[in-house]
Every structure is written in C-alpha cells, then in structure tokens.
Amino acid sequence: MLKLGYKASAEQFGPSELLEFSCLAEEVGFDSVFVSDHFQPWKHTGGHAPFSFAWLAALGAKTRRVQIGTSVATPTFRYHPSVVAQAFGTLGAMFPERVVLGVGTGESLNEVPATGVKWPGFKERQGRLRESIDLIRRLWTEERVTFEGQYYRTSAATIYDRPEKPVPIWIAASGPTAAAMAGEIADGFICTSGKGDALYRETLLPKVDEGLKRAGRPGGTIERMIEVKVSFDTDPKRAMEDTRHWAALALTPEEKMSVEDPREMERLADALPVERAASRWIVSSDPEEQLAQIRPYFELGLTHLVFHAPGLDQPRFLKLYAEQVLPLLRAKLG
C-alpha cells in the first residue's frame, strides 16, 4: 500500500519549529513523519540537533494519526540498546501501533564527539547493530533479561512500560551487507534516493530479498521505505537554490565518513557548485515531473515514500506538495 510521509530535518530546524511543521504535515494529509537523530548537524552555521527521542514524544502527543519514528537512530554507541528499548517501549505504550524504531550503523560525526570512542570499521558497527536489535527485542518480550553479548551486557533487566505489540524495527542500508541484514531480521528497510537506479535495482533490493529468503520469510514481510529528496516550488530557480543548505548530501561516503566536526563538513559542502549540491534532489516546479521521477522507486517496490525538502519555508513546501503532488501520486500510484 502506498504511504506518503514527511522527513523532519532535525539538522536544519529547532525542536519547536520542527514540531509545528510536522503537525502541519498531518493536517495537510501526509501519512507519516520520520525524524533524523543527530548529535551534531552536517552544517555548523545555523545548524540544529534536537534529541529525537524526546521530540517524538511531543510529536506523538500533538498528533493523532501519522506514523512516527526515527530515520535513523544508532543504538550502539551514544545509546546503550537497553536505553533505546526503554525509550521506545515508552513511546510505543503511549502511541500504540504508530511508532517505528529506524536504526542504522551510524556516522562518526554523531558518535565520536559525544563519546570519544575510536570509530570502528563497518564489520564491527554491523555486528553491534545486529546484537543491539537482538537485545532490544528481548527486553520488549522477556522478563529479567540477563544478556552476555560480544558488545553489550545486561543483568536481570526489565522494561516495565512497553506496548502489547513490540515496536517495529526498520534497518537503513546504503550497501549490500546491511540490506541483506534488513531482509533477514528487520520489520522494515530504509534507503535514500538519488544514488542511481542500479544501486536499488541491482544491489539493495535484491539483497533485501536474499536476506528474506535466507531467513525463510515471505517476500512481503517487511515495509520498504525510501527517503525521497525533493525540492519543489512554483519558482524553479528557488527550488534549485534551496538545495544549497543540504550540499553535504552530495559528498561521497569517502569524502564525509571520517569527518567529525560540523565546521569541516560545512567547509566541504560549501565548496561544491550548486549543480552538484542539487544532484541528489528531484528539483522541479512541475508536479508531473515529480511523478515521473518518483514513479521508478515505487515500481521497484519502495511503497513508503518519505519526502525530504531542503528549503527554509517548510510550510510553503508542505502546502504546495499536499495540494499539487500528493493527490497526483495517490491517483497514479496508489
């Protein structure tokens, strides 16, 4: 089933302002709101980084219908998995069947400054993520959990406030190994747009299916979500200029993976020409063009589309998109 969501950019806006935007997203017809979880933003000047777990509680209380969650949190360094289990147990109890825990292996920008940890390689980060998911699920379903893992331990731990039905855990992946793990153990899969058709068609989605098959799970078992980066405005020049704030997204993993200072990330991003800054975005003033560029993701089976807009005037985007694009998507794809 087609779902159309809004990405709350916690790196770009303060918590109160972001809450207003997200409530408006529900009001104008979006189906979900997903928030990023950063300790530090990618841009120092004018950057923000509100605590997503606390913010989600406010969002849940101020809304009634939309699905809410992280896209994504890292339950391995800044947060011990048992703390994540407690936080999302509480959220799930307060807002039953509305909450999603989206997780990923993380970035040094968020984890190193907050903890002083030496940033490990991908193999360890993936091992930590797999183990943390196992522990979180045990804490949601068992009493007095004593856990002796490679990375994490608990001693007779109990989560006292939790929903009757465990919160779904969705895994974000930008490469084949994490995508296969999502298929194997997750309730959902998350990816981001603008990286070339071949990555989704030939690598990520086949690996999700491979993981499902390895685990003996039906193909339709998990939700498949993509954050779609869209810069839409009636003024095409404005739509292009709006992408400058998020130029860091155009940096390659090699360019940004080891960067731990938002000032350095900002310097690298500001050096990019606007054409490259806009390269990850669907930039247009035409609803039909939005449909044409979004349709391929839906046809690949990515049926939960969460739209991330780069401009400062988020209410303008939300109202324009709800009026001109969402009805078209529902009519043509839904």
Topology:
Layout: E1 3-8, H1 15-28, E2 32-35, H2 52-62, E3 67-70, H3 81-94, E4 99-103, H4 108-115, H5 122-141, E5 145-148, E6 153-157, E7 169-172, H6 176-185, E8 188-192, H7 197-214, E9 223-232, H8 236-241, H9 253-256, H10 262-270, H11 274-277, E10 282-284, H12 287-299, E11 304-308, H13 314-324, H14 326-333
Parallel strand pairs: 1-2, 1-11, 2-3, 3-4, 4-7, 7-8, 8-9, 9-10, 9-11
Antiparallel strand pairs: 5-6
Helix pairs in contact: 1-2, 1-13, 2-3, 3-5, 6-7, 12-14
Description:
- With 334 residues, the protein is of the alpha/beta class.
- It has one domain (3-237, 286-333): Luciferase-like domain (TIM Barrel).
- The protein has helices spanning 15-28, 52-62, 81-94, 108-115, 122-141, 176-185, 197-214, 236-241, 253-256, 262-270, 274-277, 287-299, 314-324, 326-333, and strands at residues 3-8, 32-35, 67-70, 99-103, 145-148, 153-157, 169-172, 188-192, 223-232, 282-284, 304-308.
- The protein has an eight-stranded parallel beta barrel, surrounded by six helices.
- Helix 3 links the parallel strand 3 (67-70) and strand 4.
- Helix 1 runs parallel beside helix 13, helix 2 (52-62) runs parallel beside helix 3 and helix 12 (287-299) packs across helix 14 (326-333).
